[in-house]
Design goal:
The protein is α+β, with helices and mostly antiparallel strands. The chain is 27% helix and 19% strand. Helix 14 packs antiparallel against helix 17 and helix 21 runs antiparallel to helix 22. The protein is globular and about 85 Å long. The strands form eight sheets. The protein has a six-stranded antiparallel sheet, with helices on one face. It has a five-stranded mixed sheet with strand order 20-19-21-17-22, with helices on both faces. The protein has a four-stranded mixed sheet with strand order 4-14-12-11.
């Protein structure tokens, strides 16, 4: 795999045609920001379908495909039809793996190399010079999984009846947009202000709404359209009102983190596989091929190659691990692919007839400790906001010991900094505060909290004892708890009384979002090309910026739950203004320069404390699974493994 490149480099004119995994695209570019990409007409004489479709009463495959289907080049070989892809989910709300495997067909997509954006559901797109307007052309003849046409009427329905309906959408966002429908295939999205990162967002899981709402099906549940039997439908489905009914059938299922596209098997979709057994109907979620899927291979075989996908719902990671070691999982890269589990998975590879593939992780840190610089207690806040206090705590951490004990010797000490694979890497930021130096730690802490009690624990400026509680959850990664316990001992050793407090993820999120935490632990996202799209550790842009969530509410101009938004310090405001400037241009060079300035401020601010750079990750695949890259990126915004063209995976059995 080639080295990751800048997320903002968009179109390298020719190179992406060689690595995109698709054929027949042309690139037009001019000026600083305007560029367009279009798929040229396919030159395939005939199309073939999977044998399992022969028994169904369907139109010929050529009539089920768009006039210009997307042609996908397998990375290894043309496949054979058949088989059931066995994988798994853990717990009652693990829908992210569904999204990545069977739910990621947006208007545009990333190439497998994560360096270019190309059309996907859309046949072509064009961006304006000022990064405010984006025009898309859909594929003529494209159909939903029930055979109904997918047109700009579906785009209009989302734009006008969902996005702009105050009962279905909580606000229009910081940069509202409108849609102009030109004809049944072409439309333009125009933002009030420049939105230079729109295409990157559209290629991520955040871009799914544009291709998720079939108007012909969902209008029956919408008060603006159904004037005949809406009340009857509300009663039949046990909903309180039409809004809850609509969410149950096509939106976010009320009271759950799961979307209706996984719980409603009747909801038409554009994905390679459609639901047979919905989420919540048993111990499995099952899918079978979509006979109207819009992609083919170069020989005209309609994708996907694999007939079915089966997600078994496991109650814990250990059961999933046992199934994997027994060879009962065909492809997986979630929950069980940890450093701790790798020896047992490696030991059982031969017996289980599976092997590893490598994951280049977008994570830049194994565990981030966020001291709350906006603490509700004014005295504590003053201490936590002191850079020397945080830097002193950082120097007190023996990172190599944590790496050896918790991460089985894998990785290296690392601050909150982009990885070396990106153009944003700087050694000074990556290594800032990572040296284990007790003398330096005490020197810095003495400058902030010189007074101690009889047991050597540091006192606050008002004479009260200071206790730092590290809130941590093992739900996502058990290593977090081990790290927190070790860090608590290091900080206590330099006179900062610290307690690690394991708790449920939902409680941790509730407390941090109401700004009731001293310190929380989470992953270090944003290490690769997602650094610009998700800069949470470099500037407080979201409620995942745990060192200053009220700052993020101030930036997002939204109300904070049980806490007032807090205006950040001047230099932090300067960094946020630079990010706004970055979002207002689609010029790659300008984006990279601005991100460099933001990272320079992050180095001065030292927002939070990182532990180590994650070692390369891994996933597992059965030996008979073909067209899986030996190396792929691991990232939510990528989103793994969708851009590697999962409909081209096949079973060589």
């Amino acid at each position: 795999m080639t080295k990751a490149s800048s997320i903002g480099r968009h179109m390298s004119r020719r190179r992406f045609l060689e690595v995109a995994g698709v054929t027949g695209f042309s690139v037009i570019a001019s000026g600083r920001g305007r560029y367009a990409v279009a798929q040229t007409p396919t030159a395939i004489d005939s199309y073939q379908q999977a044998p399992m479709l022969d028994e169904l009463e369907l139109p010929p495959v050529a009539e089920r495909l768009p006039e210009n289907p997307m042609v996908v080049e397998p990375i290894e070989s043309i496949g054979r039809y058949g088989g059931t892809w066995r994988t798994g989910m853990v717990g009652g709300a693990d829908s992210a793996w569904l999204e990545k495997i069977v739910g990621n067909d947006n208007l545009v997509r990333w190439t497998a190399e994560w360096d270019e954006i190309i059309p996907n559901v859309a046949e072509s797109f064009e961006a304006s010079d000022d990064a405010r307007s984006y025009t898309f052309t859909l594929r003529k003849g494209h159909r939903w999984s029930d055979g109904e046409p997918f047109t700009t009427e579906d785009i209009r329905f989302y734009a006008e009846s969902i996005y702009r309906n105050p009962e279905l959408t909580l606000g229009l966002g910081a940069n509202p947009w409108t849609v102009e429908i030109h004809d049944e295939l072409t439309f333009t999205i125009t933002f009030e202000n420049p939105e230079g990162l729109f295409l990157q967002t559209l290629a991520s899981p955040n871009g799914t709404p544009w291709t998720r709402y079939p108007a012909h099906y969902l209008k029956q549940f919408h008060a603006d359209y159904n004037t005949e039997n809406l009340e009857q439908l509300i009663q039949e489905n046990g909903a309180q009102d039409w809004v809850e009914l609509f969410q149950m059938k096509g939106g976010q299922v009320p009271g759950t983190p799961v979307n209706a596209q996984w719980t409603n098997a009747e909801l038409p979709r554009l994905h390679a596989w459609k639901i047979d057994t919905a989420y919540g109907e048993g111990t499995q979620v099952t899918f079978s091929r979509n006979p109207y899927y819009f992609k083919v291979d170069p020989e005209g075989n309609q994708l996907p190659y694999i007939d079915q996908v089966r997600f078994e719902i496991f109650q814990d990671n250990e059961v999933l691990l046992l199934r994997a070691t027994a060879g009962e999982i065909d492809f997986h890269a979630r929950h069980i692919n940890t450093n701790t589990n790798k020896p047992v998975l490696a030991e059982n590879r031969e017996a289980g007839e599976y092997d590893f593939f490598e994951l280049t992780q977008s994570l830049m840190n194994t565990a981030v400790f966020s001291i709350n610089q906006t603490h509700k207690d004014e005295v504590v806040r003053e201490v936590f906001a002191d850079r020397d206090f945080r830097l002193g705590l950082s120097h007190a951490i023996n990172r190599q010991e944590i790496i050896d004990v918790v991460f089985v010797g894998q990785g290296e000490p690392w601050h909150l900094a982009p990885r070396v694979e990106t153009p944003f890497y700087t050694e000074s930021l990556a290594k800032l505060g990572t040296e284990f130096d007790i003398e330096r730690a005490n020197e810095l802490l003495d400058g902030v909290l010189p007074d101690k009690d009889g047991s050597g624990m540091r006192l606050l400026p008002n004479g009260e004892p200071l206790t730092v509680v590290i809130e941590v959850t093992g739900d996502q990664d058990p290593a977090f708890v081990d790290c927190a316990n070790m860090v608590a001992s290091y900080w206590t050793a330099v006179g900062v009384n610290t307690q690690a407090k394991p708790e449920d993820r939902s409680l941790l999120y509730s407390r941090k979002e109401t700004n009731d935490h001293d310190c929380v632990v989470w992953w270090g996202d944003g290490g690769l090309n997602d650094a610009i799209l998700d800069p949470r550790w470099y500037i407080p842009t979201s409620t995942e910026s745990n060192y200053g969530i009220p700052w993020a509410y101030w930036y997002m101009k939204t109300e904070a739950p049980d806490s007032e938004p807090v205006e950040p310090p001047e230099q932090v405001r300067e960094a946020l203004a630079l990010y706004d400037e970055l979002k207002n241009t689609s010029d790659p060079a300008a984006q990279q320069e601005l991100m460099g300035q933001i990272l320079a401020i992050a180095e001065e601010q030292f927002y939070a404390i990182g532990i180590s750079l994650p070692a390369p990750g891994y996933g597992i695949r059965k030996n008979y699974v073909r067209n899986v890259p030996e190396v792929m990126f691991q990232a939510y915004l990528y989103p793994t493994p969708a851009p590697t063209n999962t409909p081209t995976y096949w079973f060589d059995t």
